Amino acid sequence: MEKRSLLLALLMILALACPCQAEEKSYKESHADKIKKMEETFWAASQAGQTVTGVLVEGNSLFNGTTAPQGRPYGQPYTKEELLAAKISAERNSKIFILTKDGQLYYPTLPKGTAVSQSAQSHRIPRVLSEEQKKQKLFSWATMVPMVGREVEVYGEIYPGYAGVKGIHIESIRFEGEYLVDQ
To answer: What are phi and psi of 87, to 5 degrees?
Structure first.
């Protein structure tokens, strides 16, 4: 009788400890649902004027006077030679900024409160596609380095920044054309 009680107690302990319980339903969003929600948020923010539109410029050449994208016609920040040098510098981890038509600089940064940084330049930013772009089956994300010199529209949280340069945590990005590394 004692063996039977011991065996029964052991079986109950095993049953309680076993992770073989009934599967719980997962309420996580699917990737498609996340993308749809991101696009809806972006388009609503764009219509409300809460996005930032500007040209991606490389920081070293901007601040050391090698180039002057802020003095050029908007959308044409570099000559062909300067663009090549800016992209090489960006690949080597020079900082990238967004330069708007009115001359405001935005520094892409990690979310507020993130203590340990990663290379924000290699982070894949979800790309917002128009219906026409969706038909072309373009990349659904982008990184910043290949985009140096191109105009982008971004949505994200804006931080006050310092010395006239504002910070922005980019949540989504929109741009025309294809996402090609060498263009």
So the answer is: -70, -40
Residues of the chain scoring pLDDT < 50: none
CB atoms within 10 A of CB 54: 22
- The domains of the chain are located at 30-174
Maximal CA-CA distance, the chain: 93
pLDDT at 65: 81
Q: How far is CA 110 from the centre of its chain?
A: 9
Spatial distance between the Cα atoms of 167 and 73, rounded to a whole number of angstroms = 24
Spatial distance between the Cα atoms of 174 and 151, rounded to a whole number of angstroms: 9
Cα–Cα distance measured from residue 108 to residue 105, given in angstroms and rounded to the nearest whole number: 10
Phi/psi region, residue 26 (left: phi>0; alpha: psi -120 to 50; beta: rest), is beta
The residue among 37, 29, 74, 38 whose CA lies nearest residue 156 is 38
The three-state secondary structure class of 153 is: strand
Coil vs helix vs strand at 72 = coil
Q: What is the structure's pLDDT at 157?
A: 94
Task: Tell me the C-alpha distance between 170 and 180, whole Å.
Answer: 20
Distance CA 94, CA 82 (A): 14
Which DSSP letter does residue 108 get?
E
C-alpha distances in angstroms, 130 versus 36, 136, 138, 173, 175?
Answer: 12, 10, 10, 12, 10
